[in-house]
Design brief:
The structure holds 2 protein chains of 2 kinds.
Chain A lengths: L1 H17 L7 E12 L8 H18 L2 E5 L3 E2 L6 H17 L3 E5 L9 E2 L2 E4 H7 L6 E7 H13 L5 E2 L1 E6 L2 E7 L2 E2 L5 E7 H4 L12 E3 L5 H10 L16 E3 L2
Parallel strand pairs in A: 4-12, 9-14
Antiparallel strand pairs in A: 2-6, 3-5, 4-8, 7-12, 7-13, 9-10, 10-11
Helix pairs in contact in A: 3-7
Chain B lengths: L3 H17 L4 H4 L4 E8 L22 H14 L3 E5 L8 H6 L2 H10 L3 E2 L9 H8 L12 E2 L12 E6 L2 E8 L9 H4 L3 E2 L2 H15 L4 E6 L12 H7 L5 E3 L11 E4 L5 E5 L7 E11 H15 L1
Parallel strand pairs in B: 1-2, 2-3, 6-8, 8-9, 9-11
Antiparallel strand pairs in B: 1-12, 4-7, 5-6, 10-11
């Protein structure tokens, strides 16, 4: 036993010397983890409620305004979804008010920021959540060849919402690209509505930066609200079904 | 021949006596030190819970519930670090209306210790972000953005060393490539450096100069990509000495932290808790003094004889 204690002491001595150096001294030996769900079943922190309340009241009075109704729920999904079709159509409508001859509209899928909008009343706040960015509707003059490149970019990203256009995704490439029902002519220039974010090369769209650009001061979010207000989601709407604008090859 | 249990008992009594007799008990004390890491990512201005009619997350999220949960855990645990992996801004009308003020103030109230910057934290430009900094009582950490000659020069730090009890914990941040993701006018002259190269430099410093017991990376690189784009998986595999990567950007809901192997085959934990403040990550670590571990090993050798 004595021998063992001596050995113990000498080890402890070494330990003491080591403790004086600036080296790591503690080692993680084990852990346990849990990713907790935060929900309204947890009692509210009263201090935080008091803090948030003035911000919330002012915002709610503005954002809870009902701007329209929908008879369908809008869902975000790949390669095509009714939420994306609705957004691309709204952007095309807005662009056509700015200029004649806009044939195509493209929305970046990642720019739609909520996965689902239930049917029923649609508030201003809901559209802010769908499109929180202050993106502006922008019209680009895109040569047919670049438009095909753009479609490949969308296909590689598993399908971006479009309006006035259709394409099929095969092995991450776009094929059977149609603009207003006709194959793309690489020698023509098409007017394409996008957000300023995409027009300026966002979401790796650098190849669009060389296109002639017509900026506007119309928020994409306002275009979406206008489309809701117009009643486009009411009754027997085209958004009840998908429209084969974007599909995966068998 | 004495049995194993008796022997352990005797050793325990022996060391207990030694400890009371003004022996350097610190080196002998067999006590565990625990550290709790709490974390969020991509909270995206979601101050309120999702509405009850939401299909995916009805009633989930919200800072009033998060604050309660954090306060509850603070009562249970002595040593806590509360961290965020970026994208605090953008996603609800709160942000359009108040430009990030309530988001940052709420984090200060909850006692966040540090955050990194996500791409959306640039959405109202460097001026917009800088305007909210006075509301933050915690640092923003990004090691691979060079802020020289910008508004944020000196205001965003690469790393911070935290002390919790006897532990030294090095925390550093890594941001995603801004070009092609953030509008140029919003990030201006901020220069992006390679995250893996930067991580190696910072980790070396935290490990060898600061002598940290644990190194945590707050990453807004994203969990994993189909391409070879740098991600938390790439970062983990190409570095050494990172103990924990708290990730963001890809809004990945990991059911629990994933254990990956680093460049020398050691474990790196990676965790990410979706987005919108729907989850709060919690990892309880137990630490032991290195020498204590050596002694424990020594005991094992003796016992096996």
């Amino acid at each position: 036993m004595r021998q063992k204690i001596t050995r113990f002491l000498s080890l402890a001595g070494v330990a003491l010397i080591a403790a004086c150096s600036p080296k790591q001294q503690y080692l993680n030996t084990r852990h346990q983890a849990v990713n907790l769900t935060i929900s309204d079943t947890i009692p509210a922190d009263t201090g935080m409620v008091r803090f948030l309340s003035p911000y919330k009241q002012k915002m709610d009075s503005n954002m809870n305004q009902v701007i329209g109704y929908s008879d369908v729920s809008l869902t975000k999904a790949l390669p095509e979804c009714n939420m994306g079709n609705f957004a691309a159509d709204a952007q095309l409508d807005a662009a056509r008010k700015l200029q004649d001859g806009v044939e195509v509209s493209v929305v970046n899928y990642g720019g739609l920021r909520i996965p689902f909008i239930p049917k029923g009343a649609i508030t201003k706040g809901r559209i802010y959540e769908l499109m929180p960015f202050d993106n502006m509707v922008t019209i680009l003059e895109v040569p047919g060849q670049v438009l095909l490149q753009f479609c490949n970019h969308m296909a590689k990203r598993k399908g971006w919402p479009v309006s006035g256009m259709a394409y099929v995704i095969r092995n991450g490439q776009a094929e059977q690209v149609l603009v207003q029902g006709k194959p793309v002519n690489p020698h023509l220039v098409y007017k394409v509505a996008v957000s300023d974010y995409i027009a300026n090369g966002g979401d790796d769209c650098d190849f669009l930066k060389s296109c002639k650009k017509y900026p506007s001061s119309v928020f994409l979010r306002d275009a979406l609200m206008d489309k809701v207000r117009s009643g486009a989601l009411k009754g027997n709407t085209i958004y009840q079904d998908l429209q084969n604008r974007v599909r995966n090859a068998e | 021949m004495q049995n194993r249990r008796d022997f352990i008992k005797k050793v325990a009594i022996g060391s207990g006596l030694l400890a009371t007799q003004s022996f350097p008990f610190e080196a002998l004390a067999a006590q565990d030190i625990s550290l709790t890491i709490l974390h969020t990512n991509d909270t995206h201005s979601r101050l309120d819970p999702f509405p009850e009619d939401d299909r995916n997350y009805p009633g989930q999220g919200g800072i009033v519930a998060r604050a309660t949960e954090i306060a509850r855990i603070r009562k249970e645990r002595e040593h806590i670090l509360l961290l965020d992996a970026g994208d605090i801004f953008q996603g609800t009308p709160y942000f359009n209306e108040y430009k990030g003020e309530p988001e940052i103030m709420a984090m200060s109230r909850m006692g966040y210790d540090a955050s990194t910057m996500g791409n959306h934290d640039f959405d109202i430009g460097l001026e917009g972000f800088a305007a909210q900094l006075p509301h933050a009582n915690f640092p923003f950490l990004v090691a691979n953005y060079n802020f020289k000659h910008t508004l944020l020069e000196g205001k965003v730090k690469p790393y911070k060393v935290f002390r919790r009890g006897p532990l030294k914990i090095g925390v550093f941040g890594l941001g995603i490539q801004l070009h092609g993701l953030v509008a140029r006018e919003n990030y201006g002259k901020v220069w992006y450096n390679d995250p893996v190269v930067t991580a190696k430099e910072v980790v070396h410093l935290l490990k060898n100069k600061e002598g940290c017991d644990m190194i945590i990376c707050l990453s807004h690189l994203g969990y994993r990509y189909e391409s070879d784009k740098v991600s938390d998986h790439v970062l983990a595999a190409e570095t050494t000495d990172i103990d924990l990567i708290i990730g963001g950007h890809t809004h990945t809901f990991l059911p629990e932290p994933v254990s990956l192997k680093n460049k020398v085959g050691k474990d790196v934990l990676v965790n990410q808790v979706g987005w919108a403040g729907l989850r709060l990550g919690r990892i309880d670590f137990v630490f032991n003094h290195k020498n204590e571990l050596k002694n424990m090993k020594a005991h094992t050798v003796i016992l096996s004889k």
